[in-house]
Amino acid sequence: MYKTVLVGIDGSEPSLNAFNVALEMAKKFGSKLLIVTVYSPPAIGLLGDIPPYPPTIPKEVSERMEKLLKELEEKAKKEGVNAESKIISSWVNPGAGLVTEAEKQDCALIVIGSRGLTGLKRALLGSIADYVVKNAHCSVHVVR
Fold first, then answer.
1. How many domains, the chain?
2. By CB atoms within 10 Å of each CB, which of 73, 78, 79, 94 scores lowest?
């Protein structure tokens, strides 16, 4: 049913819950599991230097997230799931990075965690899960 399942990971509890759901779905459907972190640097002012494209991932972020991603990848493999992990970078909302990667990898499903923000907090902070739901080319499963 789902050839490839992408799960977005940022190290938070909601994203780790999403990983567990994605792992179970990948096991059930015999899917490949793609575990992805999107690094999106802080916004720069209009008068700042022109940044590199794609954005450079700071070494401390890369080391911390690579360790977590490898642990999750190994957990999936121990469960008998074909898994791959990667860190990508994007100047836009991390949700845009997830959607773009899902399209590149021809994913049939994106699984993403949600912190459950509502009202003003959601309007001010934006929502990665909301972006993914509204813009993904494939099915999206939001884990709360």
1. 1
2. 78
**ω into 94 cis (within 30 of 0):** no
Chain mean pLDDT for the chain: 88
Q: Answer yes or no: are the C-beta atoms of 5 and 27 closer than 8 Å.
A: no
The DSSP call for residue 100 is H
Two tokens, residue 71: 């642990």
pLDDT of residue 3: 96
Banded model confidence at residue 52, pLDDT cuts 50, 70, 90: low
At residue 63, the 3 state secondary structure works out as helix
Q: Which structural domain, as residue segments, surrounds residue 11?
A: 4-143
Distance CA 71, CA 67 (A): 6
Return the bridge partners of 8, or none.
36
Of 81, 88, 106, 101, whose CA–CA distance to 4 is shortest?
106
CATH number of the domain that residue 92 is part of: 3.40.50.620
